[in-house]
Amino acid sequence: MKKCLISLCSLLMVLPAFGETISRFTQSMSAKPGFFDLYYDAKKAAVYLDVDKVDEEFILMHSLPYGLGSNDIGLDRGRQGGSQLVFFRRVGDKLFLVEKNTQYRANSDNAAERQSVREAFAESVLASFDVVASDKDSYLILINDYLLSEHMGIADRIQQVNQGSFQLNKSLSSIDESVIKSFPDNTELQSILTFSGKKAGNHLRQVSPSASSFTLRQRVSMVALPDDNYKPRVFHPYSGFWSFSYHDYAAGLTESMTQRFIPRHRLTKKNPAAEKSEAIEPIVYYVDRGAPEQVRNALLDGARWWNQAFEAAGYIDAFQVKVLPENVDPMDVRYNVIQWVHRATRGWSYGAGVTDPRTGEIIKGHVTLGSLRVRQDLLIARGVTAPFDNEPDLTRQQQMALARIRQLSAHEVGHTLGIAHNFAASADGRASVMDYPHPLFQIEDNKIVMSNAYDTGIGEWDKQVVKYGYGDAVQNNSDDVDINSDDQTAIEKDFLNSIIAESKQKELSYISDPDARPASGLHATAHLWDNGADAAKALTHIMSIRELALANFNQQVIADGVPFSQLEEVLVPVYNLHRFQVEAAVKLIAGRHYQYAVKGEDEFIQKTVDKQSQQAALDALLKTLTPEFLALDQRIVNLIPPKAYGYSKSRESFNGKTGLSLDPLSIAEASANHTLSLLLNKERLTRLAQQSKDNQLTAGSVLRAISSQLVDTDYQQQDAFQINMRVLHAYITQLIKLYNLKSLPIESLSSVVTELDYLQHWTKKRLGRARKSDDSYGYYKSLQSLLNTREESFEGERPSVALPPGSPIGNN
């Protein structure tokens, strides 16, 4: 009996912990060896993962290989879901997938110090799995439940944008058998997810065959951590890079706990001692084969511009761009990809990717380029040149559109290199592809010229940024003596400081999103979709382009066979050609010149825009409120009938209040509202009020200038009078909104009260002079009624007319 027990114990010791070996359990399945070995049971549509790396960290990421196709919802083809640092933890007969907290760390040799931080901040258990078979230190788990769960926030997104209430329907979801792949450093799995629900919104109905369900594909990627040879590079506010940061609780008491680095690809010279050298492994990007040939070539050309910057940083052919080989998966983490992505309506493009959550090293760059941008640029080009004459030739228009695609390709690739926007570059003669460029039109012989609409090649700022992020100090070490780490750090610090100093010596401007995007922005040269160093002069220039384009606007902007009603969509960007430069010019008013100054490096910090420049901007902006500027020639109005049968208005059409017909007064009001809303921005108005002590424009003087523009001229022609009344009504409406704004400080409120009283007095005088039989009497009476409501709730006021979508050029 004792011998039997001993034999049984010996047998149990050699059996796997969970009863069956992996090889035996999977003997009838197809195997996919790789980073994680995969096994697929085709009969049961079951995917098994062999976890032989318990407690070992790896990168987990999710993405959408197939998109929804709606710009407004945003679940695009190729969308990236971010990177997570995870590991498998064994607990009994289960494995738990755990995400580590990478925001809080202790960079210390003291294990107890590191452990104290781990214990202080939460980790996240993402999933649990039953172990179905095992070998020594290797555990087989069924991962269907994880793959058939959503990890991209799809249902939440649908709800956030008010497109209905939808939930994942697992009974209509499945494993995607075509993507069960594993490679030495990454494992790729995909599922087909169906969401069912009700109350689908218009945006969802537009792109889904069924209003009650839609189906997407979701990718799960498990990626091996890069080796430890990557060295993070310190962030500088003037470097031009995004910031990758975390909190280091082991930092010295006199040091910042926030550690900031730049995200970048790994790039190393073959010969560190050479001024110029090839890379050990170049950075290679691949362009979507699905892009049309002309577009694909433009994407290749634009992305390849970056090699100019890498050449300037000391590399030879270190940045390469090729066409994606056939049958290569664009979502595979091993490939940097430029995807050509379709949507139902025009939309933004993006530069994203996969980064190592520990270091910020970019593992995969992934560009999403909206395919409708090129068509919108063609629309703008057609609108300003009217090419469809007896012998239509769209060569120039196509060249302009493709020039924009080249620039866009370079821009979005720049983001995937870790580089941020530079919205001040246009003030330095288009010094960066990381700006948002407006087409630079010129007038020659009374014709609009587009030959220089977009710049070619990488900018001077871009070269400096790449030097900072990817360049290295030349290592002239003739004695082949190893440089210790402290010396190497000092060498790199001196090198990076020299790049920053060189950029400043070149007087290259750099201001990014937080300063340039807000409507309340105040930087004098950081703008989106602008041109030139002087925003007021540039506004005057684009107004002259607009005037000529409208004067020449005719039926030749559309091709034969197109209904005349489609002239409206061509007219929209032409009539509103000034809209972005208005946003730029208004920042001069109560604006400032400043940079991302650093103590010990910079003397200049900031200064207020001089009074003359502020006044010039105000003068130019006031011209956009005049009937002369806003009036749409009756010739154009007569050209555009209601929509032809089979066609309909869209958000790309003008908004109006006349039903099916074009509404020139609402078109004018929308443009004026755009200028007024920026001039009357509450933060800008408050800055104006506070700068009065510096002998500058004041809130009161700006409001009075607007009022004078609108009330000092008696317009005899009915069209001009009606436009002016629309604008005046809109102006008073916005003033009353400010008056009722509880957050408006008293120094601003006082100017608003003064101006409302002034306009009330003016209206009373006008009513006193008008007869009830006069056409003008009803207008003045309406204004008086509006002014008398300033103390009342403004919830039911007449909604303002808005511009059709604009930003960015070719997108909304």
Automatic annotation (TrEMBL):
<dbReference type="GO" id="GO:0008237">
    <property type="term" value="F:metallopeptidase activity"/>
</dbReference>
<protein>
    <submittedName>
        <fullName>Uncharacterized protein DUF5117</fullName>
    </submittedName>
</protein>
<dbReference type="Pfam" id="PF17148">
    <property type="entry name" value="DUF5117"/>
</dbReference>
<feature type="region of interest" description="Disordered">
    <location>
        <begin position="792"/>
        <end position="812"/>
    </location>
</feature>
<dbReference type="InterPro" id="IPR024079">
    <property type="entry name" value="MetalloPept_cat_dom_sf"/>
</dbReference>
<feature type="domain" description="EcxA zinc-binding">
    <location>
        <begin position="396"/>
        <end position="714"/>
    </location>
</feature>
<feature type="signal peptide">
    <location>
        <begin position="1"/>
        <end position="19"/>
    </location>
</feature>
<dbReference type="InterPro" id="IPR032534">
    <property type="entry name" value="EcxA_zinc-bd"/>
</dbReference>
<keyword id="KW-0732">Signal</keyword>
<dbReference type="Pfam" id="PF16313">
    <property type="entry name" value="DUF4953"/>
</dbReference>
<dbReference type="InterPro" id="IPR033413">
    <property type="entry name" value="DUF5117"/>
</dbReference>
<feature type="domain" description="DUF5117">
    <location>
        <begin position="78"/>
        <end position="270"/>
    </location>
</feature>
<dbReference type="InterPro" id="IPR034032">
    <property type="entry name" value="Zn_MMP-like_bac"/>
</dbReference>
